[in-house]
Amino acid sequence: MEQQLFIEALENLKIFAKSNGDKVTKADVLDCIGHDAELDDAKWQMVAGYLKTNGIELTDVKLTDHTFERQIEEADKRQAEKELNKEEQKDEDSDSGESDKKDSENDAKTDAQEKQLLDMYLEDLKSIAPLSRTTQAVILQDVCDKDVESRGVIINNYFLQVVEWVKAYAGKGVAMMDLIQEANVIVMDELGRRDWMKRLDAFDVMDSDDINAWTDLSERLDAYLIDRVKEGIGKLIEEQTDEKMAGNKILAKVNAVNDAAEAAHKEYGRKVTVEELAQFMHVPAEDVSEALRLSANRIENVVVPD
């Protein structure tokens, strides 16, 4: 199954899980991704870890990949901190100057927290011994022979490299740890399948004792995974950017209606109706109603329809 189709299948599984107490079984997973999928223990670990990051328990798989668990805990911690920041922002002073100051302070706080989490993750990675190209080539022979332990060693080695791969995307709207986690999932997904072997003609060297042939395959695997990570990270940043742009458009629309409502209130000396405000702004009444809805009817100086 192609990676994108695999992820889409898991997204459908998440919808099912929400109606099933946030719990699913292996059978439920296979119902979504297809019963012909070949999932070994490592792949089930990846699936269980992915679902857990979304608050879903795969009941008949015990999650034992400690690296993935740390990422999950860090992601949960970051999400909790973001929610806390949102609550703090709701209580901010309405004065624009004070609000800007507090926004700046919150941004600095978030940056500091992100750096702390990244430092902790990098410290954890120090327990992983990097592999030389020759050693990786030797271990890759066992990976091609479906040795699960050897694949885990290769994956851990790529965790070290992923940090360097994603540095070029820092400062583009997505937190560094989110970039790393996305890249790690892509690496685990790719190495959990055999598709890369077909793409890189690995079967042509499986019977070879020539270390140079295996070294070449190792180098080509690096390049292949880098391309997959770049593609996945690019999509992630694009999605985040689109969400941010959509949020900015909504905020701009609400602010415009709010400012117009304040001006109309001063002119009429009272709260105005949706229709009056629409005429005042020279826009359709539906636009004003939508802005009211998006603001949860918190725009002052407008009579909220029953």
If you had to describe this structure to a student in words, what would you say it looks like?
The protein is mostly helical. Among the domains are: 1-64, no CATH class; 248-294, Arc Repressor Mutant, subunit A. The chain is built from twelve helices and two strands; from the N terminus they run αβααβααααααααα. A two-stranded parallel sheet has the order 1-2. Helix 1 crosses helix 2 and helix 3 (41-53) packs parallel to helix 4. The longest helix is centred in the C-terminal third of the chain and has 58 residues, at 211-268.
Give the gist of this structure.
The chain has 306 residues and is mainly alpha-helical. The chain has helices at residues 3-18, 26-33, 41-53, 66-90, 96-125, 133-144, 148-166, 176-191, 195-199, 211-268, 274-281, 285-294, and strands at 23-24, 57-58.
